[in-house]
Amino acid sequence: MKKVLITGAKGQLGLSIRSITEANMPLELIFTDREELDITQKDAVLSFFRDHDPDYCINCAAYTQVDQAEKEPDRCFEINVKGVQNLVTACTESQCILIHISTDFVFDGKKGTPYCTTDKPNPINVYGTSKHESEQIIQKALSKYFIVRTSWLYSEYGNNFVKTMLRLGEEREEILVVNDQIGSPTYSGDLAAFLFRLIGEDNQEWGVYHYSNKGKASWFEFAQAIIEIKGLECMVFPTTSEEYKTAAKRPAYSILDTTKTERLLRPDILRPWLESLERCLQKSGD
Length: 286
What we know:
single chain, alpha/beta, Rossmann fold, six-stranded parallel beta sheet, two-stranded parallel ribbon, 12 strands
């Protein structure tokens, strides 16, 4: 039986993984969050791996507060870079396969067409820079790994754009959302299922993969869909990134090319983003 360690298990992806575990036995899953395993503590990480000897480690532990990272870069790098270095050291020692979750924010958004896995990253904010550095650490040190870049992740768990829009849609008569940033909203439950497919099919095509739901949207279009599906009376109006300034710069276009992923695990692994949004909102309303 394969033993799979999940770090950052209380985040939305970790919780999504936990929610579908019954359909993915006979894997032995070890869920840890900071209380059980602080990835920034090297000795603790090495000790945990020696005690549990996992076959796979899915690293969901990350500093993901994009704007806050501009104010506390040291903390962001401690988790996203130092923490990953510790996991890489432990995986090397224990011959564990690392599955690391990365982001579309490693790109600058200037390409204008979907980003391939071979495109050169050029992050434009602290968070993206930290995730790019973690990718480089993995690629230099390990031969058996999966780096999975995803985009605009949301779920029925934790804090995310969908839950924010639902809250604002209930509280306000109108909201402004930027219309000049384009990406692919991705349901965390779909990403979790993809990760299990990687493990369950014992895939050994190591390297960088892109996973997002199919199609594209602006944040404005994403918000419109959320409000419409839930039947809220709140009006959604477009604005620009220039008018709605944030601490961190964000790529204007961050669509991920998923061709490599589709070749690996068949096109049916990728659902249209609107279909997955409807599934998520239905679950959150149950």
